[in-house]
């Protein structure tokens, strides 16, 4: 029997609806971890002001002029602030994503086995795979950002090629690079089922960013948790879709 995207979307929706409380709890937890780590690791107010001053000075410059300005005019304080800000953004986002991906994929496997588990039990069961996921998602994140820096197309291809790698790493208990290799082969062999879903995920995340201003009236941390939770719910649905797709391809 052929696999259709509409069937996968419907199955994913039904699973998420039935496990909504657990998925929401994991999404909120991942968002909280990201926001708290970002707050703890972020530079001081003075360093943030230094970054703001640097960005203000580069307003209206071309990319080439920006690079020249950064090389010649950036101060040690601004260098330190940018480095710490980048580090905070990278590791806080990575930590939240690892918890979300590991938790959701473990939840799916437990439910598929007929096991009713609390969120705490799901997180405990996901612990063995978290280090592997951390390495995988770090590589994925870095390569995706490099792809965005070049053009949208490389980033989109990376997103498609490695989309299934977390599922394979968790389900098959294989190493990071083998999971990426198997994911690439699987994705481009079934591009009609992967490409539209990945595109919808990217578009949904971009649209979500447009609502950042609507949360400006709230406390910044509360707004960030709300935004992160909604983003995580979108990603959780995509993980469920990819897991269902993987199982059907191997049925």
Morphology call = globular
Estimated structural class: mainly alpha
What does the average pLDDT come to?
A: 84
Total DSSP E strands: 0
Q: Helix count? A: 12
Share of β-strand residues: under 5%
Distance between the termini: 10 Å
Q: Major sheet: size, sense and barrel closure?
A: none
Which parts are unreliable, with pLDDT below 50 for 5 consecutive residues or more? none
Helix content: over 70%
Gyration radius, in Å: 20 Å
Taken in chain order, the helices and strands follow as HHHHHHHHHHHH
Please give a structural write-up:
The chain has helices spanning 5-18, 20-41, 45-57, 63-73, 76-112, 119-126, 130-150, 152-161, 165-171, 176-189, 191-209, 220-249. It has 251 residues and is mostly helical. The longest helix has 37 residues, at 76-112. The radius of gyration is 20 Å and the shape is globular.
Set out the fold topology.
Blueprint lengths: L4 H14 L1 H22 L3 H13 L5 H11 L2 H37 L6 H8 L3 H21 L1 H10 L3 H7 L4 H14 L1 H19 L10 H30 L2
Helix pairs in contact: 1-12, 2-5, 2-12, 3-5, 5-6, 5-7, 5-9, 5-12, 7-8, 7-9, 9-10, 10-11, 11-12
Entry summary:
The chain has 12 helices and no strands. It has helices spanning 5-18, 20-41, 45-57, 63-73, 76-112, 119-126, 130-150, 152-161, 165-171, 176-189, 191-209, 220-249.
Please name the defining characteristics of this protein.
251 residues, mainly alpha, 82% helix
């Amino acid at each position: 029997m052929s696999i259709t995207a509409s069937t996968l979307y419907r199955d994913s929706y039904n699973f998420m609806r039935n496990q909504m409380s657990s998925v929401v709890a994991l999404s909120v937890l991942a968002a909280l971890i990201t926001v708290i780590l970002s707050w703890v690791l972020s530079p001081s107010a003075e360093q943030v002001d230094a970054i703001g001053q640097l960005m203000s000075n580069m307003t209206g410059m071309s990319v080439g002029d920006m690079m020249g300005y950064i090389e010649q005019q950036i101060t040690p304080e601004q260098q330190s602030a940018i480095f710490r800000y980048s580090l905070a953004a990278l590791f806080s986002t990575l930590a939240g994503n690892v918890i979300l991906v590991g938790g959701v994929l473990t939840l799916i496997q437990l439910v598929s086995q007929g096991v009713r588990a609390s969120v705490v039990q799901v997180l405990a069961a996901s612990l063995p795979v978290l280090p592997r996921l951390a390495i995988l998602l770090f590589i994925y994140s870095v390569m995706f950002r490099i792809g965005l820096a070049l053009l949208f197309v490389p980033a989109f291809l990376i997103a498609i090629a490695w989309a299934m790698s977390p599922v394979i790493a968790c389900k098959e208990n294989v190493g990071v690079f083998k999971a990426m290799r198997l994911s690439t082969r699987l994705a481009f062999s079934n591009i009609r089922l992967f490409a539209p879903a990945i595109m919808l995920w990217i578009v949904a995340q971009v649209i979500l960013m447009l609502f950042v201003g609507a949360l400006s009236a709230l406390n910044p941390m509360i707004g960030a948790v709300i935004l992160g939770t909604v983003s995580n719910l979108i990603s959780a649905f995509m993980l469920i879709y990819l897991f269902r797709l993987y199982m059907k391809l191997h049925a």
